[in-house]
């Protein structure tokens, strides 16, 4: 799936198939869209909703989103952007942090019946950029949840040079220094014992 973390902009749907009114603010009920309503003419949704399902990565967040959907035969194209401010915890010192997230995306979906069967072989580059839908309606909430997760950095830090917690006393090394010795590598314990005997 293709998703680049950039400042949010409205999806570019200015071609001849997009002559529809500007998007209106959508209710949560608009996050499930019947496939038959998506055609060559672009369907737009824009609004604010709360989503969860992030496990230990993030708390529930309120997101602002703007998307455009179109369909050619069974292929559904989803373009848009999502923005939120997500509460979480620093992965080094465990302090609560507020993380601004922005993600722009351009995604393709096919019916699940067209997905490769298990053991059918390696996926090529084209298949890696495609996801699948499995019902007569498109679940926009699931797509937005995935894009928020893709916007989360590998490490959530309160600051780039966070020193984290002391592995011995548990103190926050950003706030005070401690005299705890650096932990040794247990794999070297035998060599350390031999050194002490010399």
Explain this structure to me?
The protein is mostly beta strands and 198 residues long. It is built from three helices and nine strands, in the order βββββββαββαα. The protein has helices at 125-128, 140-151, 189-197; strands at residues 3-4, 25-26, 32-34, 43-51, 61-72, 75-89, 96-111, 130-133, 137-139. Strands 1, 2, 4, 5, 6, 7 and 8 form a seven-stranded mixed sheet that branches. A two-stranded antiparallel sheet has the order 3-9. A hairpin with a 6-residue loop joins strand 6 (75-89) and strand 7 (96-111). The protein is elongated. Residues 1-27 have low confidence and may be disordered.
- The poorly predicted ranges are 1-27
- Give the helix tally: 3
Overall, the morphology is elongated
Largest sheet: 7 strands, mixed
- Average pLDDT, all residues: 76
Distance between the termini: 59 Å
Name the helicity range. Answer: 10-25%
Radius of gyration: 24 Å
Quantity of strands, as a count: 9
Order of helices and strands: EEEEEEEHEEHH
Task: Summarize, please.
The chain contains 3 helices and 9 strands; from the N terminus they run βββββββαββαα.
């Amino acid at each position: 799936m293709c998703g680049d973390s950039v400042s949010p902009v409205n999806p570019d749907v200015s071609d001849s198939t997009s002559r529809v009114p500007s998007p209106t603010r959508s209710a949560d009920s608009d996050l499930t869209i019947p496939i038959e309503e998506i055609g060559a003419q672009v369907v737009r949704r824009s609004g604010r909703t709360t989503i969860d399902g992030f496990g230990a990565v993030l708390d529930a967040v309120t997101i602002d989103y703007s998307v455009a959907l179109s369909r050619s035969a069974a292929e559904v194209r989803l373009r848009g952007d999502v923005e939120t401010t997500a509460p979480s915890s620093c992965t080094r010192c465990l302090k609560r942090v507020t993380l601004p997230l922005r993600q722009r995306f351009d995604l393709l979906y096919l019916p699940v019946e067209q997905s490769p069967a298990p053991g059918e072989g390696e996926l090529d580059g084209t298949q890696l950029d495609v996801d699948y839908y499995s019902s007569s309606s498109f679940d926009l909430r699931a797509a937005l949840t995935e894009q928020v997760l893709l916007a989360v950095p590998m490490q959530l830090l309160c600051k780039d040079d966070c020193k984290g917690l002391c592995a011995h006393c548990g103190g926050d090394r950003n706030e005070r220094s401690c005299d705890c010795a650096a932990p040794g590598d247990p794999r070297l314990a035998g060599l350390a014992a031999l050194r002490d005997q010399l």
